[in-house]
Amino acid sequence: MAVHPAILGRFFDDYVVGDVYQHPLGRTISEADSTWFTLLTMNTNQNHFNEHLAGQNPITGGRVIVNSGLTVALILGISVLDMSQNAMANLGWNEIRLTHPVYVGDTLYAESLCTAKRESSSKPWAGIITMRTRGLNQHGDEVVSWVRSVMIPKRESGLSQGYFPEAKNGPLSLETPVS
User: What stretch or stretches form a coiled coil here (predicted)?
Assistant: First the structure.
């Protein structure tokens, strides 16, 4: 097993079944994040915004709990850098598990295990990666996990490469004047 450092965008060729990819960014959830996401998604469960009512809920520890949709979205976003930066399509999510409550002020991290890799039968320039991703809070508690499959181009395809524009005034150098 190898642990890979954070880089921007991998291709089908780069994944190794059995390798763990520790995603480099963590994110602390603020009260604004939690409230805005709950309002945006029209989730009217008061355990996400009513401190008095949530205080009576023994499952949430008597605290306002972060909307689980935000937890899933945040861990997915944290994993993109390593697992699907160059993905062309999400193909499926399975086995989503919410295993520990998340509260305002928690900092979330993620890591993914490449569980399968195969070439696409219909697109010879791409392959399919399957991964198990889990989110951890600052204490190391697993808060969410799932299995996800994505279609990723092969490096030789040229897709997701060479998109940075060439500067009209030439390459950046010590001699390049400030505009």
Answer: none
Check: pTM over 0.70? Answer yes or no: yes
Residue spans per domain, the chain = 12-157
**Residue type at position 176:** T
Round to whole Å and give the CA distance between 6 and 25.
Answer: 9
The CATH architecture that domain 12-157 belongs to is: Roll (3.10)
Segment-wise mean pLDDT, segments of 10 residues, the chain, 179 residues: 62 95 96 94 91 90 92 97 93 96 96 97 96 98 98 90 79 71
